[in-house]
């Protein structure tokens, strides 16, 4: 029993039923499941908006899915979902509402936090962003010397970087190609240096993105960017034309010297990793234009509505969350691969790493009790086909079970030259071939039938039974990107709800921040920092010695 009176997750009858089912399932092969049900490839699918989701290549039967749904029902996943949409303070450790869904709510929706409808505020900021984005795009907003803005540099980290940077890459085909848009996040000076070395400060707008406006990496880079601009333009007044802020903290923004009229607001009920459809998306909006940004929000909304209203049997985020539970908690899978067969989604997995791992990398339950089960997986992956020539070997024939999501599109986007468009079928042939090979493998008999020498047979046999989800859409449009991201946001929510953890705090990043502050004087001044452990002390000593050589 938990302190809050709930039965511990792993003591529930639903958990026990799944554990028993897992034992009975041990010898089940995907080959047999498909042989027994020729309709499986059609039946185990969902259409959500533009996303066709095929989960037939999973190690599940109707019974598995039923048991998983029973677990979700017993853990009140939908009740917590409704509480989230209603604006209740489900982020218990920070006592905050969790309302990224309000960021894409229609104008006439009512979502209340402490009795106040937040939707009008959301739309007011969207309008302010749109007006500003249009001014930059049209050349009406000029730099301090009257020159047109040709470069936009987003300075932020974590959720204030990964979302907009990922979406910018994803939607590059829809961007204004006359604008150079870059993202700086790392406090390593090389990041800002490389992002600005070929730019003209008179034509560069810095978008300083920080929810708290206290994050050391961002404030350090923003301060350096300000010096770069002021050194070139020589007038403090230039800051007002070359810096805007995206933040919840007007006081700190003003302290930095940015006119709060040029601050785009969001709210404490938007988590950093759930924020790129808020003001944090300004750089993206400048790049793709307000209309496409709106289309992206509509995509998010479509999946929000689906998550909110689809029955459990047809609810895609619920299903994806439950499949992750099945592998992570009942098959000892430690990781989850996300493999987009789309060059433009090159940053998607990095973005999902924060979304998933910062949300569900927890070992304490909502009531403070330790967890007694596995929680969030390691999320990893890169775009296909590159991964095929790197780490897929381990997925196919290694000793670890790695469930994977394959994301692909029927058509390329943008203005690919004729011949390059033709490469798309080859890309997608790989996409389909990989999930087929992972699911069905190649038996020793099949290898022998090819005349392979007996001693080679074990090496050339593929066990198969590697589970994958295939997500297929026509084209990577702004709306489809919104749909995809919302799908993962809600999947992460489902898993956190079942594991009974707070998916919306991130206390695990605090200790490192505090220690970095403490260690810094030892590096800069050689100060004798009390409490430094012997290993770190010796390392810092070696660092200083090497630096002086
Ligand atoms: O990594 C911790 C974190 O708080 C993230 O959750 C957040 O996205 C990031 O830092 C940046 O925070 P801010 O937007 O306040 O600068």
UniProtKB/TrEMBL annotation:
Pathway(s) this gene product operates in, as recorded in its UniProt entry: Carbohydrate degradation; glycolysis; D-glyceraldehyde 3-phosphate and glycerone phosphate from D-glucose: step 2/4; Carbohydrate biosynthesis; gluconeogenesis
Location of this chain's protein in the cell: Cytoplasm
Enzyme class: isomerase
Chief location: cytoplasm
Keywords: Cytoplasm, Gluconeogenesis, Glycolysis, Isomerase
Matches recorded under InterPro entries: G6P_Isomerase, G6P_Isomerase_C, Phosphoglucose_isomerase_CS, SIS_dom_sf, SIS_PGI_1, SIS_PGI_2
Active-site residues annotated for this sequence: 358 (proton donor), 389, 513
TM segment ranges: none
Record EC number: 5.3.1.9
Tagged with keyword Isomerase: yes
Catalytic activity: alpha-D-glucose 6-phosphate = beta-D-fructose 6-phosphate
Matching CDD domains: SIS_PGI_1, SIS_PGI_2
GO molecular function, one term: glucose-6-phosphate isomerase activity
Pfam families linked to this entry: PGI
Gene3D superfamilies linked: 1.10.1390.10, Glucose-6-phosphate isomerase like protein, domain 1
Top-rank taxon, per record: Bacteria
Known role: Catalyzes the reversible isomerization of glucose-6-phosphate to fructose-6-phosphate.
Family stated for the protein in its record: Belongs to the GPI family.
PANTHER family: GLUCOSE-6-PHOSPHATE ISOMERASE
UniProt protein name: Glucose-6-phosphate isomerase
UniProt organism field: Streptomyces albidocamelliae
């Amino acid at each position: 029993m938990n302190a809050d009176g709930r039965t511990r997750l792993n003591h529930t009858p639903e958990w026990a039923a799944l554990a028993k089912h897992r034992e009975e399932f041990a010898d089940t092969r995907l080959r047999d499941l498909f042989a027994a049900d020729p309709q499986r490839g059609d039946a185990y699918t969902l259409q959500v908006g533009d996303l066709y989701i095929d989960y037939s290549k999973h190690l599940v039967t109707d019974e598995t899915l039923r048991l998983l749904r029973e677990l979700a029902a017993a853990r009140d996943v939908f009740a917590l979902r409704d509480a989230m949409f209603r604006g209740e303070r489900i982020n218990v450790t920070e006592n905050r509402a969790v309302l990224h869904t309000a960021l894409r709510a229609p104008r006439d929706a009512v979502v209340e936090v402490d009795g106040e409808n937040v939707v009008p505020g959301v739309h007011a900021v969207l309008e302010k962003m749109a007006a500003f984005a249009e001014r930059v795009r049209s050349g009406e907003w000029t730099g301090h010397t009257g020159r047109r803005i040709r470069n936009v540099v987003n300075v932020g980290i974590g959720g204030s970087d990964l979302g907009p940077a990922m979406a910018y890459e994803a939607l590059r085909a829809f961007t204004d190609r006359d604008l150079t848009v870059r993202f700086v996040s790392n406090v390593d000076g090389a990041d800002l240096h490389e992002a600005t070395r070929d730019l003209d400060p008179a034509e560069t707008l810095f978008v300083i993105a920080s929810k708290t406006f206290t994050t050391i990496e961002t404030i350090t880079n923003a301060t350096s960017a300000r010096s770069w601009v002021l050194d070139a333009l020589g007038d403090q007044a230039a800051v007002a034309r070359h810096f805007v802020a995206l933040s919840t903290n007007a006081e700190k923004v003003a302290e930095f010297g940015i006119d709060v009229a040029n601050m785009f607001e969001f709210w404490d009920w938007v988590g950093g990793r759930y924020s790129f459809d808020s003001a944090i998306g300004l750089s993206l909006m400048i790049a793709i234009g307000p209309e496409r940004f709106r289309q992206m929000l509509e995509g998010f909304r479509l999946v929000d509505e689906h998550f909110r209203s689809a029955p459990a049997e047809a609810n895609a985020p619920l299903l994806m969350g439950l499949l992750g539970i099945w592998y992570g908690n009942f098959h000892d899978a430690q990781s989850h691969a996300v493999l987009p067969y789309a060059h433009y989604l090159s940053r998607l997995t990095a973005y999902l790493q924060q979304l998933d791992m910062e949300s569900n990398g927890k070992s304490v339950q909502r009531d403070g009790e330790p967890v007694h089960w596995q929680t969030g997986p390691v999320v990893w992956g890169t775009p296909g086909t590159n991964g095929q020539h790197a780490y897929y070997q381990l997925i196919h024939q290694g000793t670890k079970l790695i469930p994977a999501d394959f994301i692909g599109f029927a058509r390329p986007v943008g203005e690919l030259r004729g011949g390059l468009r033709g490469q798309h079928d080859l890309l997608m042939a790989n996409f389909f071939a990989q999930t087929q090979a992972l699911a069905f493998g190649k038996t020793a008999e099949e290898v022998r039938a090819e005349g392979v020498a007996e001693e080679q047979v074990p090496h050339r046999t593929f066990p198969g039974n590697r589970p994958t989800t295939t997500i297929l859409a026509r084209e990577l449009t702004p709306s489809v990107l919104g749909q995809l991201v919302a799908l993962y946001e809600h999947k992460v929510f489902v898993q956190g709800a079942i594991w009974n953890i707070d998916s919306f705090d991130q206390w695990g990043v605090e200790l490192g921040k505090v220690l970095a502050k403490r260690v810094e004087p030892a590096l800069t001044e050689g100060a004798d920092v009390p409490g430094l452990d012997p290993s770190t002390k010796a390392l810092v000593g070696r660092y200083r010695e090497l630096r002086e050589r």
